[in-house]
Design goal:
Chain lengths: ~350, ~800
């Protein structure tokens, strides 16, 4: 059985060589050598003439099997080569991943507007509509209708910019309360926030002659101080996190009674006392109170039928507390190195 | 108002710590801004008894003393001229501390507080130092060392802490009083009453003892005529005769200083002291400077003048109230006395004024004259008309005990109409409803009574010292603050949401902000003001400034006008950043401009301002840099308008004075003018210290809003393939590309779906004044696949039209 051994050896040699070939060109050479038209394996069939007759079917079958086996080895190796080739191509395209990424300069909302939008969203979710009013305002709406007559002591609290005897730059967003109520009475509820610019003659590290406020007003049947507290606590938690607490201190605004200054627990130290909260654990964030009956009347509502609460907060103050900004001037300097942080 | 804890304890026992009292006061509305400790800088100072005084062996001007400091005898060297044996002197021991004191000759500077060390004087070591009153912070100034034996009433035991001897240890609470509490809490008794309601302890009013009285009758000495009872409902006078004007005793000076007032002399100090006690301002006149003892309370004549205590001549008008003699004005009622009627060193007989004035009139006068006196601050908030007589009696009593003299019997008291106590019905249901509480009537009444209100049959009688209480809500506040704001429940209200569509222009504003931020622009926020120069800087003719809104009382010149354009502030922001080495800027501001049209309030127009300079999206090593230019700005603006779904924009040549004359445009949609854009002229930029090219746009948002459709539909995506054909030609550069595009679209109707400029070339090979343009055209039919031949036919039409317009085709 010489031919069997010879065939078997040839097959082993072919498979071995194919499997150890290292480059596509070598693989192709081997293919021609073994599987080409005159290849050693394909050509082996020609030896059938030398094979005794009774062995010929057997010979044909075994040669065929050997060819298939070698072909398989070739195909297998070809796949390996292709994938190795691709791998090499990838290697050639290797980059230094430590190099910096593309500086995609998306712009930035101003921190005040970002904070204002945040406040708006919190109250929008509670069902508040946004109301607006003029910045250049009649004294009548800025003071008189808010229970601050001309010689009232409370006018000392706000030094105003005047345009004429009757026209001022509004010192707070509160005149929007009156304008909105007058346009809305007797419908209920009145449920608004009024963001916008306000103006006071003050300019130092903690005051700016132009600043932003958000006024809030809810007028409805059966609204109480407890509702005000709950609303403000809800706001504080959404704005400063779930651990935020609030504290109210009695205060005075001519257009609310009872009135309160509202403190939020210091977000820096969590209420233990630090530099930011001057050791008190509390930070003043807004003023609030129950709408004064005279203001309800001026707005066209009957204080015997409805109650209301109102609050007003400085957006600058909230933004400064939330982001730990310690100098008011940064907010209006528009230094890009500051702007790009928000 | 500054409250000394020790002084306050004269009127009420306090068993709260320093911090507890501060918190307690804040939580009932008397906001404590801070607490300072008095005497904390004095450490290790004791009473020393000088046993022996000997000349220093080697230094003729110094003496060496043996001083008994209780535990020990110390050797102390001093040069004080008034040293002698057998006296008690404040002695600071080694390791002790003395407070900072004013530097001699410089009122504003102080020394640092300092620690005492042993010091050698020519071979003798001094184990401490003998002190003056100034050095231990007891007096403003003093001569030589303090001889404690000369100060009456001190308990002098060698070694005793000097702070105990002088009662130096104290805490001062700085109260920040709101106007409503200022009416009744600008006094120690007022604060004591609040503390009493807080703690339940009773207050102790000052006792008025037996004072020496003169035989004379007040009515023979004084007559009062009130000419304006509205402004002065009550005026009274007492007379103390034969006082000796001089320095006040130390305790009185200390108390006034703790309350933040400067001691003047014993007469003025007593009136101030009683004012601080009762909240009733008093004024002391030299009786003999009041002609014939006749006092007239009247309005000033128009233009009448008076020189006040501070030496300033004041011009008054008929709104101001005067206390006058028959010959001249003596004081501006409730505000300040005149210089020439004040108590002097040789004054013997004192007229003490105690009065009640209409608070708003006092406030208006004080505000107009810019006088911020302690008296005006109290009268201005509303004082108690019924404390007038008691306060002046207390002052007369105190004065005789300090300055001698006798009190003339009786009071000259013009009080035509006694002020009545207000009565307010107490409606428990209303108050509970307002506060969200369920207090019983008893609980409410208890709180009110603790504050000195009385309640009969559910009617609250308001003491006249509480002018701030006007109605039921004021009572509700009293109840709430003493019940405790923070004990009231937190409840998020149930109830309907506001029944209102969100305002569209607010949504638009938000969309603009989001889009521009997405495009890489940073939002800025600037003041609404404008310097009067700004319009001139922009080259706007003076005649066009008439619609500017002017502020009557600006703080600075650059805040005199309200802005009529966002451009100056944009340029300021650009300039600020360039000066800080930030050269690549892309800014926008959503702000208002203010324009006075006719009468009434000015228009407040919302405007979008954009400013670009330097490189855009700069700063990566792998990318080409994009310089900002007109077309980048236009691209941003177009992207924005596209996103807002307003109609097609037309850019027309404009002539704004601040823009480059060849690089600017007005933006129109139809005939609606929605803004302008351009390159800032270099000479305008220079006005802002900017040398770079700056590109600016202003978009009028109200106009943009008017063009936005309520809803917009979508356009079907073409189902059939499109064919792209390019066309390039040379044409006179004065032919507007927008016009060419329009012609191409018209010529290619209905199958041209798009036309896009993709190349512009001028220069070599192109004649002067011409340029080469290349457009890409998209042909498509939405109902079928186009045949080559029909595309070719239409494209040929386009070519012909272009040739008619003077184009020479290149392809």
């Amino acid at each position: 059985m010489e031919w069997q051994e010879e065939l078997s050896a040839l097959k082993r040699e072919a498979v071995q060589n194919l499997k150890t070939s290292s480059a596509p060109a070598e693989l192709e050479e081997l293919r021609v050598k073994y599987l080409g038209k005159k290849g050693l394996v394909t050509g082996y069939l020609k030896k059938i003439k030398e094979i005794p007759g009774e062995q010929r079917p057997e010979f044909g079958k075994l040669v065929n099997e050997a060819r298939v086996e070698v072909e398989n080895a070739y195909e297998e190796m070809k796949l390996v080569m292709v994938s190795r080739e691709k791998e090499l191509a990838y290697q050639a395209e290797k980059i230094d991943v430590s190099m910096p990424g593309l500086d995609i300069s998306v712009g930035h909302r101003h921190v005040l507007m970002r904070t204002q939008e945040e406040i708006e969203e919190i109250f929008a979710a509670l069902g508040y509509a946004i109301a607006e009013g003029p910045e250049v305002e009649y004294e009548y709406f800025n003071f008189e209708t808010l229970n601050i007559p001309k010689d009232h002591p409370a006018r000392d609290m706000q030094d105003s910019f005047y345009i004429s005897d009757e026209v001022v730059l509004r010192t707070h967003t509160s005149p929007v309360q009156i304008r909105y109520m007058q346009g809305h009475a007797p419908q209920l509820p009145v449920k608004i926030i009024a963001p916008g610019r306000v103006y006071r003659r003050d300019d130092d590290v903690t005051h700016s002659p132009v600043f932003h406020q958000v006024e809030g007003l809810l007028v409805d049947k059966g609204v109480s101080f407890a509702d005000l507290k709950g609303t403000l606590l809800h706001f504080a938690k959404r704005m400063f996190g779930d651990s935020a607490r609030i504290r109210l201190r009695p205060s005075y605004f001519p257009f609310t009674e009872p009135s309160a200054e509202v403190d939020v627990s210091c977000s820096i130290c969590g209420g233990d006392g630090c530099n930011i909260c001057k050791g008190t654990g509390w930070l003043e964030i807004l003023g609030a109170g129950m709408v004064h009956p005279k203001v309800l009347v001026n707005g066209g509502y009957d204080p015997n039928e409805v109650n209301g609460f109102a609050f007003g907060m400085g957006i600058e103050r909230i933004a400064m507390l939330k982001y730990g900004i310690d100098d008011m001037r940064l907010l209006y300097q528009n230094d890009v190195r500051f702007l790009k942080q928000f | 108002m500054k409250i000394s804890r020790k002084w306050l304890e004269d009127y009420i026992d306090i068993d709260m710590s320093v911090g507890e009292l501060a918190d307690g006061l804040s939580m009932i509305g008397l906001t404590v801004d801070g607490v300072s400790e008095i005497g904390s800088e004095v450490e290790g100072v004791v009473v020393g008894y000088v046993r022996e005084v000997a000349m220093h062996p080697d230094a003729g001007r110094l003496v060496v003393c043996k001083v008994d400091v209780g535990t020990d005898i110390k050797t102390i060297v001093t040069g004080a001229p008034n040293i002698r044996e057998g006296i008690h002197v404040p002695t600071v021991l080694v390791g002790g501390r003395l407070p900072a004191v004013p530097m001699p000759g410089n009122e504003k500077a102080t020394t640092a507080s300092w620690e005492i060390e042993p010091v050698e004087f020519h071979g003798v070591v001094s184990e401490g130092m003998l002190c003056s009153l100034a050095e231990i912070g007891v007096a403003q100034e003093s001569m030589g060392i303090a001889i404690l034996d000369e100060i009456p009433g001190l308990d002098l035991v060698p070694g005793k802490d000097i702070k105990e001897v002088f009662g130096l240890k104290d805490y001062v609470y700085e109260l920040d009083l709101t106007p409503n509490y200022a009416s009744h809490c600008q006094s120690y008794l007022g604060v004591a009453r609040e503390v009493s309601a807080l703690t339940g302890r009773d207050i102790k009013e000052p006792e008025i003892g037996e004072y020496p009285a003169s035989e004379e009758n007040i009515d023979d000495l004084v007559s009062i005529e009130i000419k304006d009872e509205d402004l002065c409902p009550r005026y009274s006078a007492r007379i103390v005769k034969g006082v000796k004007v001089g320095e006040s005793p130390l305790w009185l000076q200390q108390r006034l200083e703790a309350a933040g007032m400067r001691p003047i002399n014993n007469v003025v100090d007593v009136t101030n002291y009683v004012m601080l006690e009762y909240g009733q301002p008093l004024h002391a006149f030299d009786y003999h400077l009041v002609k014939d003892g006749k006092i007239i309370v009247r309005r000033a004549y128009e233009g009448e003048t008076i020189t006040t205590l501070d030496g300033v001549e004041r011009k008054l008008g008929s709104a101001d109230l005067l206390i006058a003699g028959s010959d001249r004005p003596l004081a501006i009622a409730g505000v300040m006395g005149s210089l020439d009627s004040e108590v002097r060193e040789d004054t013997r007989d004192i007229l003490i004024e105690s009065a009640h004035f209409y608070n708003r009139s006092v406030l208006a006068t004080a505000r107009r004259l810019g006088i911020n006196s302690e008296a005006a601050s109290r009268f201005g908030r509303g004082s108690d008309p019924n404390i007038v007589a008691k306060a002046s009696l207390r002052a007369a009593d105190l004065l005789t005990s300090i300055a001698g003299g006798k009190v003339v019997t009786g009071i000259a008291d013009a009080y035509p109409q006694k002020a009545l106590e207000k009565k307010i019905e107490l409606n428990g249901e209303y108050i509970n409803g307002l506060l969200g509480l369920s207090l019983s009537e008893r609980e409410m009444i208890d709180i009110l009574e603790s504050l000195g209100f009385s309640v009969e049959n559910m009617v609250v009688i308001v003491p006249t010292r509480r002018p701030d209480i006007e109605g039921m809500v004021d009572l509700a506040e009293e109840i709430a603050r003493h019940y405790g704001y923070n004990r009231i429940e937190n409840r998020v209200p149930e109830g309907k949401p506001a029944d209102e569509q969100p305002k569209r222009h607010l949504k638009t504003k938000k969309e603009i902000r989001e889009r521009l931020v997405g495009l890489g622009l940073d939002e800025i926020v600037t003041y609404s003001f404008m310097h009067p120069f700004e319009l001139k800087r922009l080259g706007v003719e003076a005649g066009k400034w008439t619609k500017v809104v002017k502020i009557a009382n600006p703080m600075t010149e650059d805040q005199r006008y309200l802005r009529t354009t966002l451009i100056p502030n944009l340029l300021h922001a650009v300039s600020y950043n360039i000066r800080h080495q930030q050269k690549d800027l892309a800014f926008f501001e959503l702000g208002k401009v203010y324009i006075q049209e006719g009468e009434g309030l000015p228009l407040e127009n919302p405007v979008l301002g954009i400013g670009l300079t330097g490189e855009f999206m700069a700063g990566h090593w792998s990318k080409q840099v994009m310089k900002t230019d007109f077309f980048l700005l236009k691209g941003i603006v177009e992207n924005l308008f596209g996103g807002l779904h307003i109609g097609k924009r037309d850019y027309q040549v404009s002539s704004y004075s601040w823009y480059h004359p060849g690089r600017q445009a007005d933006i129109f949609v139809g005939d609606v003018h929605i803004g302008h854009l351009g390159e800032i002229r270099l000479d305008v930029a220079e006005e802002y210290d900017v040398e770079e090219r700056v590109y600016v746009a202003e978009i009028y948002l109200r106009q943009v809003e008017s063009l936005r459709a309520e809803l917009f539909g979508y356009e079907q995506i073409g189902r059939y393939p499109s064919v792209q054909r390019d066309i390039a030609f040379i044409i006179d550069a004065s032919v507007r590309v927008a016009d060419l595009e329009k012609k191409i679209l018209q010529a290619g109707e209905p199958i041209v779906k798009g036309v896009r400029l993709f190349d512009v070339y001028a220069g070599k090979g192109i004649p002067e004044g011409m340029h080469s343009l290349a457009f890409s055209l998209i042909y498509r039919d939405n109902t079928r696949t186009l045949q080559d031949a029909e595309v070719e036919e239409v494209h040929e039409r386009v070519r012909e039209i272009l040739q008619e317009l003077g184009a020479s085709l290149r392809s």
